[in-house]
Amino acid sequence: MVKSMQLSFLIFCILASFYASALETVTATVDRNPAVINQSLVLTVVADDSVSADALDLSSLEKDFIVGNTQVSSQTSMVNFNTTRITKWTTVLIPKRVEQLIIPALTIQGVKSQPIAMQILAENDSRAKQQTQLISLDAEVSADEVYVQQQFTLKVKLFILAELRRANLSDPKMTGADIQKIGQDEESIEVINGKRVRVIERNYKVKPETSGKFTLHSPHFNGEVSQSSGRRSLFSSMEQGKPITVRGKEIAINVKPIPEGFTGEWLPSELLTVNEQMPEGEEFELGEPITRKIIITAAGLTAEQLPELDFNAPDGLKIYPDQAEDASTIRNGTLFGQKNQDFAIVPIKPGTYTLPEVIIPWWNTKFDRLEQAVIPAKTITITGIAAQTPIVSQQLPSEPVIVTEYNTTLQWLFLTLWLLTSASWFYVAKLKGRIHLSKDSFVSEDKQSYLKLMAACKQNDGEQVIALLPKWANDLFDSEHFANLDQLRTKFNDAEFNSALAKLQKSYYANEKNQWHGDDMLKIISRMQTRVVQQQQVEIALNP
Q1: Are 347 and 495 contacting, i.e. CB atoms less than 8 angstroms apart?
Q2: Helix 495-509 to helix 462-476 angle, to the nearest 10 degrees?
Q3: SS3 state of residue 26
Q4: What are the tens digits of pLDDT across the range 323-332?
Q5: What is the C-alpha separation between 96 and 442, in angstroms, rounded?
C-alpha cells in the first residue's frame, strides 16, 4: 500500500512538472548589426515555453523591412524532473532604407521582447564591404536606353562564399518586355580580396515591345547555407541551415518609340552588315550551279528578327534559295544575331548577266539615323553552247482529225462481257494453281521504276533516289543502257535536273551531310518523264 502511494506521488510530480511552467521570457536577436540594404539578415525569436506557431505577429516589421520566410521549431527537454520547453522562430528580413531602424518589441501571450536598434548601411559603404557576405548578387545591362524591339542583355553574377544547402534564383521581370535566358549557366572561381569565391553567371536577352520608362527587376536569391565550419559532423544532414535572401537591384530602362516617318522593316541596331561569298572569277560554265551565300550580322537583334532575302533573277538564270541558317550569340556582353542563306544560281543559256544588288535598310541606334547595308550588283558571264531544240519538218502531213461517236449502250454491253470473261478466266486459272497476283503485275515494267522513284522522292529518301535513277532511265529508254549518274546528265542535258542532282549528291556525300527534301526532284522527274514519253509517242506516230 505504501509503495503504491509513493508511485502515485511520483507520477503526480512528473505531471505537475510538465504543466507548472509558463511563458516568462521572449528574446529577439539578429545575426548582424549593422546590416546592408537589400541584403538579408536573420531575426531569431525564442519563447521559453511551448506555444502555438502563429503566436508571433511580425506585421509591425513590414514598414521598414521586407519580411521573408519564417521557420518555426520547438524543443522539450527534462533533466532531474526539471522540464524545459522552448519555441523558436527564424525569419529573414531585408532592410528597405539606409538609416537607423528599430525592430520593435515583439509580444507573445502578453510577454514582450526587447526592441533592437538597427543601423542600415548603403551597399557602397566601406563598413559594409568589411562585412563577410556569404552570398552577394550583381546585375548589369548592356544598355539602359534602347528602341522598341532593340534587344539588350542582362548579366547576373552570383558570388558564393559558403556551402549552399538550398538555392533558388528567380527570373527577372519587366513590364512590356519579353525576357528569355540565353545558354547555360557558367561557373568559375575568382579570387576577391584574397578569398576564393565561387561565381555563377547567368545571361538573359530582353526585348521591349512597347515604348516608355520601365523598371527592370533583376533576379532575387533565396536559399540556405550551412552554418557548420570546418569538417562536417556525422549528423550534419540534420543541422538546420541558415536562410539567406538577396534582392537583385532595380535598373531603370528607357525604351524609345520608332521614329516618326519611318517606313519599312524596323531593324534597330548599333551595327548591321551584309556580306556575300561566291566562287572566284566572273566566268562560269553553262549548266554548273553557282552558290551565292548572303550573310547578315546585327548587334542587338536575334537571328529571327533579320529579314529573309529574295531577289528577282535576270532572264536566263534560275535562282533557288535554300533554307536560312540562324545563330545568336553574346560577345563582350552584346547580343549578336546572324542569318546565313545560300542561293543556287542555275544558268540556262549563255550570256552576260547582272546579279541585282542587295539592300537592307536599318536604323543606326548609335547615331539615330537611317542607314543601308548594301552588296553591290555583280556581273557574271556564262559560257557554253545551249542545247538545240529539235525542229520537226514542215513537210510532214498534218494529223487527221478523228471524230469518234460513242454509243453508250454498246459500251456498257462490251464492258459487261469483258468483266464476265475476266472473272471466268480468273476462276479457272486459280483452280489450276497457275495465278500468282502481286501489286506489280498490274503495272508495266517501265512504270514500276518510275512509281518507285516518285515514292522515294516523296519520302525524302535520297539514297534510294540515287539508286533508282539509272533503273528509271533504262526503263525509259529501252535501247540504251545507263550505269551511272554522269550518263544521265549527258542524256537529258537539263540544267534544273543537273542542279537538283548536284544538291542531292552534296547532301549525302559531302563532309557535312544536310537533310535532303525531294519536292524539287519530284517535279523535275515528273516533267522529264512526260516530255520523253510525248516525244516517243510522236516518233511512233511519224514512223509507224
Answers
A1: yes
A2: 140
A3: strand
A4: 888 888 888 7
A5: 86
Q: Reduce the DSSP state of residue 265 to 3 states and report it.
A: coil
Task: State the Cα–Cα distance between residues 383 and 264, nearest whole angstrom.
Answer: 39
> How many Cα atoms are found within 13 Å in the side-chain-facing hemisphere of 135?
27
Q: Which amino acid is at 455?
A: A
Residue 4 to residues 1, 7, 9, 12, 14: CA-CA distances in angstroms? 5, 5, 9, 12, 16
DSSP state of 39: B
Task: Cell numbers for 342, please give them.
Answer: 545560300
Please compute Rg for the chain using Cα positions: 42
- Bridge partners, residue 208, by sequence: 177
Mean local confidence (pLDDT), 115-121? 88
Is residue 84 within 8 A of residue 78, CB to CB? The reply is yes
Number of other CB atoms surrounding residue 8 within 10 Å:
10
Rounded to 5 degrees, φ, ψ at 30 are -125, 155
Q: For the segment 134-144, what is each residue's pLDDT rounded down to a tens digit?
A: 888 899 999 99
Among 106-110, 159-163, 537-541, which stretch is predicted with the lowest mean pLDDT?
Answer: 537-541
DSSP H helical segments within 436-494, as ranges?
A: 445-458, 462-476, 485-492
Nearest to 337 by CA among 389, 300, 368, 367: 300
Give the Cα separation of 299 and 151 in Å (integer): 9
Residue 454 CA to residue 67 CA, distance in Å, equals 70
pLDDT tens digit sequence for 476-514: 888 888 888 888 888 888 888 888 888 887 776 554 556
Are 286 and 303 in contact by the 8 Å Cβ rule? The answer is no
Beta-bridge partners for 274 = 296
First to last CA, the chain: 138
Q: Residue 281 — left, alpha, or beta (φ > 0 → left; ψ -120 to 50 → alpha)?
A: left
For residue 459, the 8-state DSSP code is T
Q: DSSP letters of 315-372?
A: TTEEEEEPPPEEEEEEETTEEEEEEEEEEEEEE-S-EEEEEPPEEEEEEETTTTEEEE
Q: Which of 182, 130, 132 is nearest to 159 (CA)?
A: 132
Global pTM value: 0.52
- Cβ(256)–Cβ(214) below 8 Å: no
